[in-house]
Amino acid sequence: MAKRSMSLLGQWSSRVFSIDLDKRGALLNFALTEKPQQAPETFRNIQERCYSVLVCGDDRIQSARFYWGLEDLLRNELPAECELLPVSSYLPHVKDSLIRGYFLKDASECPSLTRRVLGALGLSEQVQVCSYLRGPDGGRWSQQLWSGSENQNMDVSKTCYVVPSEEANYHPSVLNMENSDVFYCRAEACKVLQESCDIIPESRAVLELVGKTDASRHSPDFPVVVIEGLDATGKTTLTESLREALGARLLRSPPQCLSPWRAVFDREPPLIRRAFYALGNYITAEQMGKEASQAPVIVDRYWHSTASYAIATAVSGPVSSLPPEGSPLFRWPPDLLQPSLVVLLTLDPQERKRRLEARGQGQTDEEQELDHNLLFRLRVEEAYRRVRGPACVVVDAGPSADKVLQQVLLLIKEHCRL
Ligand SMILES: Nc1ncnc2c1ncn2[C@@H]1O[C@H](COP(=O)(O)OP(=O)(O)OP(=O)(O)O)[C@@H](O)[C@H]1O
Ligand SMILES: Nc1ccn([C@H]2C[C@H](O)[C@@H](COP(=O)(O)O)O2)c(=O)n1
User: Fold this and answer.
1) Ligand 2 centroid – CA 212 distance (Å)
2) What is the pLDDT of residues 99-113, one digit of tens each?
3) What separation in angstroms does the CA of 88 have from each of 47, 53, 102, 132, 206?
4) Is 397 helix (H, G, I), strand (E, B) or coil?
5) What is the 309 CA–ligand 1 centroid distance (Å)?
6) Within its chain, how far is the Cα of 375 from the centroid?
7) pTM of the prediction?
8) Exposure string over 186-219, b if 16+ CB within 10 A, otherwise e
9) CB–CB of 146/131 below 8 Å?
10) Measured between alpha carbons, how far is 222 from 88 in angstroms, rounded to an integer?
């Protein structure tokens, strides 16, 4: 088979497959072996016909966009009785070895429809389809790699057996975060937008706004204070009050000049969306450098937001799925201007909800996700606390707006020379 499968997927038998059983962190891990062996216990309870669809094209922009649309495509085309579970395939401890896709459990009456849809998908250079077959004893499962269309679908020489695999002590997504979800230098984020210019013309406009000078080593004359927090924790209220109290300049990230394109990039997959927000920080950093030569600067969101939302979205499940405290994934990009102080506003979830409802404005998809998904909210907040260089100072935003302002003014006095 000339298709990219083996070279791109590496040795099947070295790979671990990790199925996200409930999107809440319950991962079923299995590996493959050439000798018939018993499948993991959880596999043995599966009654449905099973398949996996992995996205493994060479072009990262196209693959990211393809994967982004794959869930909708499968849900639209497959019988409703097909359950879709996110699956990752990776080589343990090998950076950038992760391939994403879906694991399908087909309980429909019409197996031929499912096979037809998957057969058509399998023809694409970007997709690798496998079937999983239960052995006659019920305890063994084999995996067959599809070689193309439905009619010549099984490449029997590639039959492997499903065996239990040790649980990794990290979420598989952690392997691929750098330069896919989080960008630690401007050049890497620029590369993503350069590669997407043909399919997203707005990328050009964004790239034109990104400067080239490295302002990171320049130490501003006046303090630069960043205010961070989940939505509706009071960032806008506090930043406006700080501006007045300190006679400061107020900036935000992403900056105003990116507003015309933000909605476009919010519809894109993480690779492209996160590169856009990363570049927003560099544009804001240039503005910070200039403004802070004349007055104190207050910034509404910056690098902590970019890194925390990206990392918290890339993993699923509880806070323990995050990269550990001290992981290099929480480092500060060396070419990005560091603020003098970062304040993280935290709020009791009930009070945050009350304020959101009282405000009554629309929410972005990610903000809606925060509302619906307690685990996601916990991951974002914990990621905020783990980002370093500088680390954030946590302030309870529950008291009145004036009390919060007074507390932050005290912090600024302690941390910055005014
Ligand atoms: N300390 C406070 N006590 C009570 N209400 C507050 C306080 N701070 C802000 N609010 C109110 O809570 C709502 C959300 O505040 P605000 O818009 O400042 O939050 P935000 O963090 O900027 O939100 P977003 O990130 O979604 O823009 C507003 O209606 C605001 O008036
Ligand atoms: N510097 C930033 C600012 C924002 N984001 C992302 C994270 C959330 O998805 C969303 C929240 O922004 P808001 O709705 O409060 O304007 O934007 C980021 O990644 N980096």
Assistant:
1) 23
2) 999 999 999 998 999
3) 21, 10, 8, 16, 32
4) coil
5) 19
6) 14
7) 0.94
8) bebbbebbebbeeebebbeebeeebeeeebbeee
9) yes
10) 47
